[in-house]
Amino acid sequence: MSADELVVTGLGAVTAAAIGSQAHWDRFQHLGKSPSSAEDYGLAQFKATEHVRDRRQLKSVSHADGIGLSAITGLITDSAYQGGYYRSERIGVYVGAAGATVADNDGYMDALIAATEPNGRVSSPRFGKTSTTSRPVTLLVGLANNVLCYGSLLLDARGPNSNYVSSSTSAHLALINAAKRLARGQIDMAVAGGYSVATDPAYAAMFKKLGLLRDEVAEERAQDNSPNNSANNSYALRPFQSDAPAGTILADGAAFVMIERRAAAAARGAKVLAQYCGGAIGSDGLGPKRCDPYGVALIATITRALAAAGISSSDIGLVLSGASGVQAVDQVELRALRQIFNDGAHSPALAVTSRVLGNLMEAGGIIELALVSEIYESARIPESISLDVALSPFQQTLNRAKPYALVLRSSPWGEYSCVVVKREVV
Amino acid sequence: MTTNAASAPNQSIKRQQKRRVVVTGIGAVTPLGHTLPDTWNGLLEGKLVAALIKRFDATDYPSQIAYEVADFKLRRDLLQTGEEMYLNDATRFAINAAAEAMEQAKLTSVQIEPSRTAVCFGNGLTCPGLDWYSEVYLPKKFDDPSFTNHIRFFADQISSLLGRMIGAQGGVTTIHTACASSGQALGEAYEMIAYGDADLVLTGGSDSMINPFSAAGFALLGALSDRNEEPTTASRPFDRGRDGFVFGEGACVLIFEDYERAIQRGANIIAEVCGYGVTESAYRITDLHPEGRGPIEAMEMALNDAGIESSAVGYVNVHGTSTQLNDRIEALAIAKVFGEYSPRVFVSSTKSMTGHMIAAAGAIEFAFCVMALKHQLLPPSINIFEADPDCRISLTPKKVTAHAMRYALSNSVGFGGSNTAIIAGRIDT
User: Fold this and answer.
1) Which residues of A touch B140 (CB under 8 A)?
2) B391 and B318 Cβ atoms separated by less than 8 Å
3) What residues make up the domain containing B103?
4) Do residues B287 and B218 share a domain?
């Protein structure tokens, strides 16, 4: 072990499945084969006031921001971080964020209605007048960097930072770039992760229009066809399964990890969840909603991540897939993994958290980091996130002698990220 | 709690060897012009194009003025089938600007190694217009065919389209930190090359917030100038009578490249990217810390990264929004960073001529630094009727002026507290 190794020392996670690091692991273990239903992926009723440290911050943020700030608050507790341990200018906050949503303008609703003419159209000049009675902070509610701002205030973090609005790879971009700054010695600790906004009605409707969302009719058909199959009776995402309805199910949630150097973490008595070894991003370069079916860029991304970690594919014992039910993308991922792990004897085991969590979009790929050591420790992948993929190279059992795990994210826009972590032996 | 030893900069971390990063292409679509040369010439002339808003009926809004990109024509030949649905105003500006930058950089598919090519772009938060709210959102008619057009407002469409234009397989990153977005995108693009993650990055920013919601929202915050009777003189950074910013819009795209690679392929090197600093004020969402600590630390970080003293900088293009608070505190920060040299470093805010291009501001203002170095000319300070005595900085003269300089620094400050500073260096020819 090296003192400069980067380690993950806490997870703050808020999803419909659970709140907190241990609660997520418990949930994964106890759910069994039929984990969730589509309705279980939303957090519309979540009350951030019960979770954030400074409730005043919630006055000018969105519901999704509140979920994100709740996760950061939980992270501070989970990592047993005491303010002042690191110098403010040596702490970085890196956030994967959803972009603006139309619901961000709900603060103008009264003004919009008041400006609506008898023909049903909103009059622009009238809105100019009626909007002056809206809350002064209405614009701020819609900012996509509120979690970065208020998260930094929570941690008194004044160092390098960033806010990525890159859809499914956002949280990994946050993590990978934070880790790079740590590795270069530019900061001493970072908080990295992301939050999603799936419950925005227009956001979900847009995904449906694009043909990316699970079709309810297909769901019903799947149920009717398999009345005795408990897994198929579930509305949950079942990526890689040929009999599962195509399309993803968006989920609300947020997940952030703390990442710091091993020596400093040990000095403050932090519990290490996993070692961060390296990461990489890649893209097909084909434009919106187009991805290369051959997975050339994804294979290159995984290869770069392995190189950054200084390991080979044969060192990987576990793959935590980013598959989200969009069949075209899932097939790209499967094809890439087949090519990377073409020797069946060295193939890893596979887990897919989207079965339990839904598609966490900008928050995805973070909770997995805290799961790795738990999975290795228990020597088995919980049934709720385990998949038997036909004609795949994946092993059914976990080879604990291979301590590295690969965490993938991929999007229908042909954008990819891959992070390599090493299990921590407790 | 007392500060722990772990908080001291870690001496055991080896300072990673950086590669030199250069600018080989710039494209711009701004209120001053639809290309970089037109924009630069407009800037040197001190052109003022602000007027009453034409994009929507702004009668009865507290602020009714903006710097709009007029008579813009998208280069449709650059689009592929089906891409029209992803376009909004900011995207259209970015496509033309990207084409100009790529042409200037003389990029061909043969010369680009896709896996070493990336996009890192700063994007604003555009939103649908009032009609869409009337027709779709308020009546909840999400099945309406027109709803498909909403995809154009997703934040990462621009980067994806630009990634397709340049064939980027080394990753596509979209950053949003409000008005610091493109400053931050440039900085991260620079670091990707400097630390070996990519050889070429298409970077920059684009934005258009000239819409009813933004006009209403910023007015509620008291951030906009309401000099509706005198639009051309409303944006007046560092003038004593300034009363808020004026919307601009547009895009600026830059090609950053590894120096050795650029030399190897005979690229036209315009300038070097020498240093980058980024900090978070961690103070208030809309306000700078009263002592200017965020911008101070960002500028110091950039100078340290570039390995130069502040006295080596000949020109600073500040964020300078024309709000009372921003300009006063930014001036304070410059005085602190440049110390006794402060009276000799020339400062200007070009927002008097472009308006506030929000997420695109950092990119266009860095491009102005590059052009200032290339031509050894200081952009003029326009709309200074009575310099604010509380802003103790040396503003550039009111007319374009020749000035020998080796380095120029561009500052950006965003709602949410992110601050960036990026330094351009002159390339000896």
Assistant:
1) 201
2) no
3) 21-264
4) no
Q: Say yes or no: A321 and A361 in one domain.
A: yes
pLDDT(B94) > 60: yes
Predicted TM-score (pTM) of this structure: 0.96
Together in a domain, A134 and A234: no
CB–CB contact B4 A268 (8 Å): yes
pLDDT at res. A36:
57
Q: Which helix or strand (DSSP H or E) is residue B280 part of?
A: strand B271-280
CB contact under 8 A, A148 and B416: yes
Taking only the tens place, the pLDDT of each residue in A347-366 is 899 999 998 999 999 999 99
B367 has pLDDT over 60: yes
Catalytic residue among B179, B252, B274, B391: B179
* Chain B residues near residue A140 by CB distance under 8 angstroms: 217, 221, 285-286, 415
Q: Answer whether residue A155 shows pLDDT above 70.
A: yes
| B424 compared with A229, residue with greater pLDDT | B424
Q: What's the complex ipTM?
A: 0.96
Say if the Cβ atoms of B115 and A82 lie within 8 Å. Answer: no
Catalytic residue among B176, B289, B356, B369: B356
Residue A263 falls within a domain, yes or no?
yes
Size of interface A-B (CB pairs under 8 A): 322
Beta bridge partners of B177: B179
What pLDDT score does A254 carry? 98
CB spacing of A158 vs B150 below 8 angstroms: no
CB nearest A285 (choices: B8, B56, B168): B168
What b/e sequence results for A204-233 when a residue is b if at least 16 CB atoms lie within 10 Å of its CB, and e otherwise? bbbbbbbebbbeeeebeebeeeeeeeebbe
Residue A270, C-beta contacts closer than 8 angstroms, at least 6 positions apart? A9, A10, A79, A80, A81, A258, A260
